[in-house]
Specification:
The structure is a single chain. The chain has eight helices and nine strands. A seven-stranded mixed beta sheet has the order 5-4-3-6-7-9-8, with helices on both faces. It has a two-stranded antiparallel sheet with strand order 1-2. It has a single domain (about 1-180), classed as Rossmann fold. Helix 4 packs parallel to helix 6 (about 130-140). The protein is of the alpha/beta class.
C-alpha cells in the first residue's frame, strides 16, 4: 500500500503501478529523505524525474512545496500520476510532462524554468548508460541553492563531476545521494541571477569577456 506519510495529506492512499520496472521508494526511506530536507520543501519549486506513481512529488506538495513538475515517459505511469494528483487535489500546483527525462529537462530549460529541489529515481541500469546529473548541469535548471536528490543502487557510484555530493543515506540496497552546486559555481550563479534581475544578460557578458581576453 502506497500512502503519503506527512503533511496536509498524511495518510492519503495513492495508486500504484503494477509493473516490476517501477520501484516505489520504501516508506522508511521516503520518511528519512523528507526529514532531512523538511526545511527546504516549504515553498519550493520541485522537479520529480522518473516520477513513476508521483509519490515523491506528491509528498513534497503535502509538506508545503509550491509546485511540482513530473517527468515520466511510461504511459501507464502517466495515467497513475494524473489519478493520484486528482485524488490529492493538487491539480493547480502540478504539471505533468510525458517525455524521456533528458528531453523533458531540455524543454524546461528552453522555458527558463529552474528548481529548488530535483528528485531523480531512474531505473538502476539506466545510470550505467545515461547521466541525468549531466543534463541537469548542462541545462542549468538547478537554482543556486538548490539540491539534486538521486536514488540509486548501492553498487553504482554516480558521476561526481557535475555537482558536489555532500550527503548520502543507505537503506538496504538503496542509496540516496544529495548533491549541490560547488561553492564557487554557486557564487557565480547567484551573481548571474542578480545581473538578470538588473536587466543585464550574463551570457552576453561572458561572451564579451572572452572577446576582451
Amino acid at each position: 500500500m502506497l500512502r503519503i506519510i506527512g503533511g496536509e495529506k498524511k495518510g492519503q492512499r495513492l495508486k500504484m503501478i503494477n509493473d516490476p520496472k517501477i520501484r516505489p521508494m520504501p516508506a522508511k526511506l521516503r520518511e528519512a529523505l523528507f526529514n532531512i530536507i523538511q526545511t527546504k520543501v516549504i515553498g519550493a519549486t520541485c522537479l520529480d524525474g522518473f516520477a513513476g506513481s508521483g509519490a515523491i512529488g506528491l509528498e513534497a506538495l503535502s509538506r508545503g512545496a509550491a509546485k511540482v513538475v513530473f517527468i515520466e515517459e511510461y504511459s501507464p505511469a502517466i495515467r497513475i500520476i494524473r489519478q493520484n494528483v486528482e485524488k490529492c487535489g493538487f491539480q493547480d500546483r502540478t504539471r505533468i510532462i510525458q517525455e524521456e527525462f533528458n528531453r523533458g529537462v531540455i524543454r524546461l530549460a528552453k522555458e527558463k524554468k529552474s528548481f529548488d529541489l530535483i528528485f531523480i529515481d531512474p531505473p538502476y541500469e539506466l545510470l550505467k548508460e545515461r547521466n541525468p546529473l549531466k543534463v541537469i548541469k548542462k541545462r542549468g535548471i538547478l537554482k543556486p541553492n538548490g539540491l539534486v536528490i538521486l536514488r540509486h543502487f548501492n553498487k553504482i557510484v554516480p558521476d561526481l563531476r557535475f555537482f558536489e555530493r555532500f550527503r548520502l543515506v543507505r537503506y538496504g540496497d538503496d542509496v540516496i545521494s544529495f548533491f549541490r552546486h560547488r561553492h564557487e559555481e554557486k557564487k557565480e550563479l547567484n551573481q548571474g541571477r542578480e545581473r538578470e534581475a538588473e536587466g543585464v544578460d550574463p551570457e552576453k557578458m561572458r561572451q564579451e569577456s572572452k572577446e576582451i581576453n
